[in-house]
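Reopening this ticket.

The earlier resolution said the output was attached, but the attachment link was broken on my side. Pasting everything inline this time so it's all in one place.
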Amino acid sequence: MKIVYIIDSLASKGGAERIISEKMNYLANLCDYDVSVITFYQFPEVAPNCYYLSDKVRQINLSIPSYLQYNFKYPKRLWVRWSCYNQLRKRLSETVNSITPHIIIGLGYSMADIVCKIKCKAAKIIESHEARLFTMSSLQFKQSSPLSKAYLKLYRNYYLHIIEKHADAVVTLTRRDAQEWRKAKRVEIIPNFSDMYISKLSDCESKRVIAVGRLEWQKGHDRLLDIWSIVSKTYPDWHLDIFGEGSLEMDLRNAIKKTNIKNVSIHPYTKNISIEYAHSSICVLTSRFEGFSLVLLEAMRHGLPCITFDCPYGPKELVDHEKSGFVIANNDKKQFADKLCYLIGHPTIRKQFANVGVNKALSYDINIIMNQWKELFNSLSSKKQ
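Inline output:
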């Protein structure tokens, strides 16, 4: 079976890029599928892939120079943007049809409208990695002008309509997101998996709390600092370590310095994050929204109890409240701090939660999840034929 993935770039250090790379490797190496990936904004000579990709996966980089639009002011910027858009649409269609795949897969947040409108015989799947509620949402563009936000709202409605009308299937990561896509032709729920090598399980004895994620507004590290400012006063011998990179790094560092929050450190992205999980005792997630949260699954696999906000949509389906961790009402920072203090003060509970989490994480085994994908591929391919 021929499968083509379509993504803007594989050079970003994001969860979607990582999980898609692992899916392609699995299908090419273990299932003997003919797998290709087409990127449209990646220039590999200056931005190589962030995650390992098997030699059996064919990578095609269209290298559309959309960045050129920012060299010009309006209205010429709009003309350059439109030229790049048309170039992308034409070259992507030609490339897909030269491969003649059975299945093409695009991401909900990245040119899914173009992917859905490619004229070919392949079945089209769109993966919803960040939840429909936040796909093309103006919440992610807080600095935009009122006019830009108005345009974005209109474009978003059109964008989602194209997906729901033309995609043969929309795959969501959670049940709650699946409900949002009810207008689509077909909706399937296939969660992510974690195939990360486990260096060792945490013994939950270290006086360390860990947070992992891009330093962007979505991940809510500003909320985490507010919470830690409360917790650190009660437990000054505990330390918070944040691992991630992003545009808000200096803002977060300045906030730490300005408010004099104790015992917190920000570390860059690391390929050895398994070791960091194993040397921690609690994992915290303060995101404003999530598609699934690989971080929580990875932490559970390493034997860490987790505390998370009940943000849309993933965390609540991963963390069982008062069994493997705590799920806190969204943005209730005081309750979050109280529960974090409770876990810090009760090592036995930490270990009980950790055991439950390890067992639950077994249901997200790569073979279980990828068998669901293979069944979907076969179903759609048979229907098309």
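Reporter confirms the inline version is readable. The chain has two domains: 2-192+366-384, 208-364. The domain at 2-192+366-384 is CATH 3.40.50.2000 (Rossmann fold).
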